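It is worth pausing here to work through a concrete case rather than discussing structure prediction in the abstract. The textbook approach is simple: state the sequence, then state the predicted structure, then interpret. We follow exactly that order.
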Amino acid sequence: MNLKDCHNFEDFRKLAKKKLPSPIFHYIDGGSDDESTLNRNTAAFNDYDLIPNVLRGVDDVDLSTTVLGEKIDFPLFPSATAMHRLYHHEGERASARAVEKMGTIFGTSTMGTVSIEEIGKINKGPKSFQLYIHKDRGLTDNLLERCKKAGFTSLCLTVDTVVAGNRERDRRTGFTTPPKLTLGSLLSFVLHPAWTINHLIHEKFKLANIIHMTEKGSSIDKSVIDYINEQFDPAMNWEDAEYCVKKWNGPFALKGVMSVEDAKKAIDIGCTAVIVSNHGGRQLDGSRAPFDQLSEIVDAVGDKIEVILDGGVRRGTHVLKALSLGAKACSFGKGYLFALASGGQKGVEKILDHMKAEINRDMKLMGCKNLSELNSSKLIYRK
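Step two, the predicted structure:
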């Protein structure tokens, strides 16, 4: 199986599983506890059916939208995710180039492996930075200032990771960053020589955005779970979030919002967007799927703040269903990380191109010429 054989999410997943050592693959693929929320994230879309119209003259469809202060070519963008260097030796460089080429928003993380400054030089399109608040508040201020200087257009504060979820797959596989050869993982690394050689001969793994700010920036010698629990601040509160909103003074999304109450508070502190997300089913298992919760949040605040759906998106029809319930756009993580692992920049370009083509084709099949024609009348709950 090669990149040319990949035509959907599951194809990219299969190829990534073939190319990545087991600990790395399962870090992308897994969720928390029993993974019930992880599985529900995608299954939730199946509870609604689309209702198409015909004879609408859909020869020319406009997929563009404006979100987080930027016009993008289609209503989907990759979620900001950490440590791309683990999945492909070019890391965020490959992702940033691909996303700019496809005309949507690129997101990078506090825990990225290519620096804010280098991303700013590589990608001249819309860019969002995913901020995690560390116990050292000086680190937060430093990251915000660097993002402004590097030309980032929006900020995304992730608020659902005050402690790490119980990611049992990581414990079973012995996942660490940088990867360590242990008796348990040795065979998997040996059986994936291309990944192992690339990892060894290219630049050393590092958390490029914080390497000069904390001794943990050069390695996480236990696990990501340990890093989160040691470095992220569980005392983070609404005052901290409001401080970041004011400090940034631009398009600002709060990611990890799952309740109407929190969405209303996000408006009160000046956020311009909320991202309805449960961190890909990797935090609180048994929590609601974002799509299940979307309409309640949109109905309460959708006329006052942009609502973005993140979680479980694998098909163009998933995007159309979310937009029909009032989401401004969608983001996805696992799919494009599998694509990055499968083929670097070309892999990310291919999955984004596939998703854009699916959305375009599905819009025509729905009889819709632009995204504003998607509304609740286009959906029915499957009883």
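Step three, interpretation. The first strand starts at residue 48 and ends at 50. Confidence is low (pLDDT under 50) at residues 217-222.
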